[in-house]
Amino acid sequence: MIQHFINNTFVDAAEGGTFETLNPTTNTPITGVADGSAADIDRAVKAARAAFDSGPWPKMGAEARSKYLRRIGELIEKRADEIAEAEIEDTGIPVSQIKKGAIPRAADNFYFFAEMAMKIGSESFPSDGKFQNYVIRRPVGVAGLITPWNTPFMLETWKVAPCLAAGDTCVLKPAEWSPLSADKLAHIIQEADLPPGAFNIVHGFGESAGAPLVAHPGAQLISFTGETTTGQEIIRNGAATLKRYSMELGGKSPTIVFDDAELDRALDGAIFQMYSLNGERCTAGSRLLVQDSVYDDFVTRLTGRVRAIRVGDPQDAATEVGPLIHPDHWARVRSYMDVARSEGATIAVGGGRPPGFPGGNYFAPTLITDVRNHMRVAQEEIFGPVMVVIRFKDEAEALTIANDIRYGLAAYVWTGDEDRGRRVAESIESGLVWLNSHNVRDLRVPFGGCKASGIGREGGHYSFDFYTEMTTIHVALGQHPIPKMGALK
Ligand code: NAD
């Protein structure tokens, strides 16, 4: 049974409710989970508030906070196998991608922000020898952290680490389809012996647990990762209590392959950045744009490779694509196959349940060709192992297609011409562009999207623009003139 974690104590839901989390390979229940409501959120926010107002966390020196964060990173490494098992069982992400990717990255998030905590500095603006103006950064207060089910542990630590580094306290509301690894984080934080209330978790559904967190007057910050429509709803619900938001939302990112690219590498990159993590990846290159002159050959090779991707049990080291998170999500991804056919596109590979997998949420790696950019399958985020392929003539057309979409999270450009590469990269409306590279992250750089893909950036020192409050202090150095109102005789 998974409980909430409030004030360093594991507790049941106030109203006693539970829900089940399912194993996506079979859809059998793994365990019950405390079903959070407004009462649980209120209790958790009050604990975080008390920890902020009267506990040691925000006032403690950066060095001391940094030690706690390093300790959490070490405990993640120590328990990496146990966390990975939980994540695989809950989400269906293949073991190879969890053990080598998402879990080490989660520990790195804590190590990185342990360093960054020491670097939150202040800026100073001397003015004509008359004033010394300087800016300090203080923690803001209580942060509500609301996270999705895709690579949940990595994304949760991506928010918790900078939040704690800044001296804020928090309430994490993990996604209802993937609560197991968040519970591991709670146990780790309990073992790291953080001051009570600095970190809290309330499990539960978006409407019953997420929405009260957004509306709670005791929380000032909401860092949200999830669907664009949920982000819109959250901004509406937080208006009355005037929240500050960081919004990491959906994407439909282009991979552009020019005919002068190193095509073997472009092929590897396009496939990996689409089908890894079961295609349930916000930065997936789900719109593949291929130049006319190499289109037929490239797509023929792509078709063969996608057909050969190894679908299987996520616990199997050879598996490349596992089952989707939940039957409802499977049905949503499947529904796009009908959309594709009705729009006149061709399902060249996959399109449904792969042979040999009668149960669970397995969905075959899918490639859709004969796609035009205005079609729904090209414009909407499917969030499964489904790539659409679009043909383009030249650089100008590639850019037009790439930008003709509401999203702007990531883009991948493959070309042998450096000048063109930079030109295109700098003209794409996107928060992140990789040039001749798959999705390799640098923790120092700002991460986030533009247009309907997000508001604000987290990552590196940019995280502290969100998690800290700036106060500007104006110090008079001498006797500057002050108008003497009312003093005239
Ligand atoms: P989702 O929006 O359905 O849910 C995300 C979280 O929000 C969950 O914890 C959910 O319970 C909660 N929630 C739902 N309704 C809420 C409400 N009214 N108020 C408060 N909280 C609410 O998203 P999902 O299906 O879990 O995740 C997939 C989406 O996340 C995709 O669109 C993907 O692109 C996006 N994503 C974006 C990034 C990024 O960095 N931009 C990263 C990962 C995932």
Structure summary:
With about 500 residues, the chain is of the alpha/beta class.
Number of domains: 2
- Taking Cα atoms only, what radius of gyration do you get, to the nearest Å? 24 Å
The DSSP helix count reads 15
Helical amount: 25-40%
CATH class of the largest domain reads Alpha Beta
Shape: globular
- What is the average of the pLDDT values? 97
Which structural class do you get from the secondary structure elements? alpha/beta
| Terminal-residue CA separation | 79 Å
CATH superfamily of the largest domain: Aldehyde Dehydrogenase, Chain A, domain 1
Looking at CATH, which topology of the largest domain would you report?
A: Aldehyde Dehydrogenase, Chain A, domain 1
- Read across the widest sheet, the strand sequence of neighbours is 14-15-16-13-12-18-19
Low-confidence stretches: none
Give me the CATH architecture of the largest domain, please: 3-Layer(aba) Sandwich
Taking the sheet with the most strands, its summary is: 7 strands, mixed
Number of strands: 22
Oligomer: single chain
Strand portion = 15-25%
Ligand catalogue? nicotinamide-adenine-dinucleotide
